[in-house]
Design goal:
Elements: E1 9-11, E2 21-22, E3 32-34, E4 41-42, E5 46-47, E6 62-65, E7 72-75, E8 78-82, E9 92-93, E10 102-104, E11 107-111, E12 115-118, E13 131-139, E14 151-156, E15 165-171, E16 178-181, E17 187-190, E18 199-206, E19 209-214, E20 217-223, E21 234-238, E22 246-256, H1 261-274
Parallel strand pairs: 1-3, 2-5
Antiparallel strand pairs: 3-4, 6-22, 7-8, 8-9, 10-11, 11-22, 12-21, 13-18, 13-22, 14-15, 14-21, 15-16, 16-17, 18-19, 19-20
């Protein structure tokens, strides 16, 4: 009755007392049914045949997706390169095998110093400094880290402080909070102690306002002035320092430029439904009950 395949063939008269197939999610170009009267192919009924929205519909600055095997270069179970799907060639790589994250099903495990880093491609920040970042990840007890502020995500340059890393995401060992910082100068906090395990995180820097969202709801905000430096060509996932921390990533999306609330909520909906987190979305989120569609 319900299928995730691209084509469904069913022999017989009725399906649950009526002709036709209801497609609950996804899209299907054609449904073929054999009528028992003349055994001819007939298209009887297709409902909800709407193509789902994906970030391919908008301009992203960088997009990394573990489920797209064509973007992964493997080295004996480790990942030496994770290619960018945005078309901007912002690929992440690591040449040292002992620092490469491990592919574990539909996730990349970064353990105790594993990193992937972008050293070429396009700049992930525009002059305004405004940006949006989205990722689905898991962290295993940040309070067990060997450092006070273990980093999991850095976009940085060789410029001097306070403009050497923006944005950056790090945990606080003492509180377990996740911080979305900007210019290495404070930032918005998310109390993640109640959200250990797989979670959807998004964050924005928008004309002096720094926000962090958990499952589509804003949970922290702070006032941090935007900077105009565009020297931030590097992006690092993980940290080369041994932090005694295990972090896994499933998907990461980065958008430089003006913050678009409608598109941001679509990305949150896309990620939530793809990674089985839709029930965690905030009650008022527009994609709480169904994924975004074209």
């Amino acid at each position: 009755k319900t299928s995730t395949e691209n084509e469904v063939n069913i022999l017989g008269h009725l399906i649950d007392g009526e002709y036709g197939i209801k497609l609950n999610s996804g899209s299907m170009g054609m449904v073929k049914l054999i009528s028992s009267d003349n055994f001819s192919w007939n298209i009887l009924s297709i409902q909800n045949n709407t193509e789902l929205w994906t970030p391919a519909s908008i301009a992203t600055s960088a997009w990394f997706d573990v489920t797209d095997s064509s973007t992964l270069t493997l080295n004996s179970g480790n990942v030496s390169q994770w290619n960018d799907k945005s078309g901007n060639d912002n690929h992440l790589s690591e040449g040292t095998a002992t620092l490469q994250p491990t592919l574990n099903g539909d996730q990349l495990d970064f353990v105790n110093g594993d990193i992937l880093e972008k050293t070429s491609g396009t700049n992930l920040l525009v002059a305004s400094g405004n940006h949006s970042v989205f990722f689905v990840h898991q962290v295993f007890d940040p309070t067990s880290s060997s450092v006070n502020f273990p980093n999991i995500f850095q976009n940085y340059s060789t410029a001097a402080n306070p403009d050497n890393r923006r944005p950056i995401f790090f945990y606080n060992r003492s509180s377990g909070d996740l911080t979305h910082s900007y210019n290495s100068n404070g930032g918005s906090l998310a109390d993640s102690t109640a959200n250990l395990g797989k979670r959807l995180v998004s964050a924005t820097q928008n004309s002096g306002t720094n926000d962090i969202f958990m499952n589509g709801a804003v949970v922290g905000t702070s006032a941090i002035a935007n900077q105009t430096s565009t020297t931030h060509l590097r992006l690092r996932i993980g940290d080369s320092n041994d932090q005694n921390l295990i972090v896994t990533f499933h998907e990461i999306i980065f958008i430089a430029g003006p913050v678009d609330t409608d598109n941001n909520q679509k990305i949150e909906g896309y990620l939530a439904w793809k990674w089985g987190l839709e029930s965690n979305l905030d009650t008022g989120h527009p994609y709480k009950n169904e994924p975004p569609k074209l």
